[in-house]
Structure formats: C-alpha cells, structure tokens
Amino acid sequence: SRALGVREPPRKGKQSREEWRADLLNREKRLQERRHLVKQASRGYFHDYNELRQQGGKAFVAPKTLIREDLSLYFPDIEGVSLATKGKVHTTDLFEDKVSLVVFSSFRSSEEHINSFVRPALSDLKD
C-alpha cells in the first residue's frame, strides 16, 4: 500500500478568488486533474469487485510498517467540532508540527448500510 494524503501543505479555509482563477487558467493543472479523473472513471466494475475480494471491503489497508518521512504526505484540511471546546476546529491547526495518529469513526447505521452491499458480494466470492 501507499501513503494517504495530499502532496501540498493544506491550508484552512477556502481559496481566494484570485487563487481559484489562477488554478482555472493553469493549463497543466487542469490537464493533470483531467488525467486523474479519467483514470478513476475508467476503472471498471470488475476492478472494484476484485479489490473488494482482496481487501475484504476496506477502501484502504494500512501498511504494516511506518511510512518514511520522505514518502509521507500531508493530512488534508478537514473542519470538525472539538470535543474539548465544542467549537469549530481545522485539522491543519491541530496537526501542525506534530506526528498524529488519526482514527475515523462512523455511525452504526452507516456501517449497516455499507454491510448490506458488502456482505452479499463477499459471500458470492467465497463460493
């Protein structure tokens, strides 16, 4: 597996109008994004089905070893609610100059919804 994350250091908040315009007019950036989207869209049903079989329904399987610093990526900026202060907080502020272990949790209802799709596929693969 590979490191998850974004290559550019994240910033909290949205892009300014000037930054958005510069990105829009940057031909190379648009082509790079287009290539990425075409690659993702051209992966077919069987590719997803094989990944489901190999990974047991997980979208990302963590590596067994730590990721070297030169290969690590930045955690994207996500806005959430602080458990301590109940106020809005950005991951960019929380993780700055720190090594972090991040855990995502989901609601039980979401898990059951996902399992309603995954269980039948996994049982088909076992046969």
From TrEMBL:
GO terms for cellular component: mitochondrial inner membrane. InterPro entries: ATP10 (IPR007849). GO terms for biological process: mitochondrial proton-transporting ATP synthase complex assembly. It comes from the Eukaryota. This is Uncharacterized protein. It comes from Rhodotorula graminis (strain WP1).
